[in-house]
Amino acid sequence: MRLLITGRPGAGKGTQAVNITKFYNIPHISTGDMFRAAIKNQTALGMTAKGYMDKGALVPDEVTIGIVKERLLEPDCKNGFLLDGFPRTIAQAEALDKILSEQNVKLDAVLDVNVAREILVRRMVGRRVCKTCGATYHIEFNKPKTEGICDNCGSALIQRADDTESTAVNRLAVYDSQTAPLLAYYEKQGLLKTVNGDQPVDHVFADIKLALSK
Ligand code: AP5
Ligand code: MG
User: Fold this and answer.
1) Which ligand is nearest to the CA of 90?
2) For a disulfide at 187, which of 40, 54, 192, 205, Cβ 3.0-4.6 Å?
3) Is the pLDDT of residue 169 over 90?
């Protein structure tokens, strides 16, 4: 399975990616997670990315395309992958088409997790993530068993630097102007599968499996 998962910021891409990658046994490639790891490790890539991410802006295409191209050449991607949060611009989508055609492979489907923008700021501002294993929670919708502590590994939960209200609003605007045009791009290729992301996590996943089985 060679899949993409797209959707507005906070729609649940990362949450569903955990289920999808386990079910299909494919690696999860999240450009956002790659940038956050680079920031944590204080690499040059991290320093570049941080300036854009803190404002809710996109990291430049040439930087992002480069890291994805490198990642897709790793052996674990040979039999499939799930790209989460990439592509995010038409230029990135065209670059991905080129990378895949050079490898003689094609995408199987593009999943669009569709959630109305009105509820997404609340999802982002209430999100908490484990600083060790990256598991995702929400202070209202997906509470950990003990407040502030990860169910999986017992580490502390933290808030992402870009999950403030003003940055979240900006990220939604950036999605509308730069990422939303991808829906028509993939619809034209016959790859787009839209699922309703405004329902409980398990129901969203059930709809994803159904969409991918068709
Ligand atoms: P990225 O990390 O990709 O962030 P995003 O697209 O803004 O999406 P999020 O990760 O915020 O949301 P999500 O859809 O994964 O939702 P989640 O499952 O966590 O990118 C961050 C930044 O990196 C970008 O702004 C940009 O600067 C840079 N970047 C990344 N990729 C780039 C690229 N390709 N090009 C250029 N720049 C790039 O869920 C959200 C919350 O809701 C959680 O609390 C969760 O528990 C809860 N939740 C999930 N599902 C449900 C549900 N069904 N019901 C109720 N609550 C739910
Ligand atoms: Mg995410």
Assistant:
1) 1
2) 192
3) yes
- For the record, the structure tokens of 117 come out as 């923008």
Exposed / middle / buried, residue 156 (Cβ in 10 Å: 0-12, 13-18, 19+):
exposed
Q: What is the mean pLDDT of the chain?
A: 97
Q: Yes or no: say if 109 and 52 are a contact pair by the CB < 8 Å rule.
A: no
Is the Cβ atom of 48 under 6 angstroms away from ligand 1?
no
**What is the average pLDDT across 168-175?**
97
DSSP bridge partners of 195: 113
Q: At 165, which amino acid appears?
A: E
Taking the C-alpha atoms of residue 171 and residue 17, their distance in angstroms, rounded to an integer, is 20
Q: How far is the CA of 195 from the centre of ligand 1 (A)?
A: 16
pLDDT value for 138: 96
Q: Which two tokens stand for residue 133?
A: 């294993």
Sign of torsion over alpha carbons 92, 97, 103, 106: positive
Residue 86: what residue type? F
Does the beta carbon of 50 lie inside 6 Å of ligand 1? Answer: no
State the average pLDDT over residues 74-90: 97
Active site residues: 13, 88, 127, 160, 171
Residue 51 above 90 pLDDT? yes
Tokens for 189? 């290729």
**The pLDDT of residue 64:** 98
Residue identifier of the C-alpha nearest atom 53 of ligand 1: 201
State whether the Cα torsion 142-147-148-154 is positive or negative.
negative
pLDDT reported for residue 214: 85
Mention every residue, 6+ apart, whose C-beta is less than 8 A from residue 200.
none
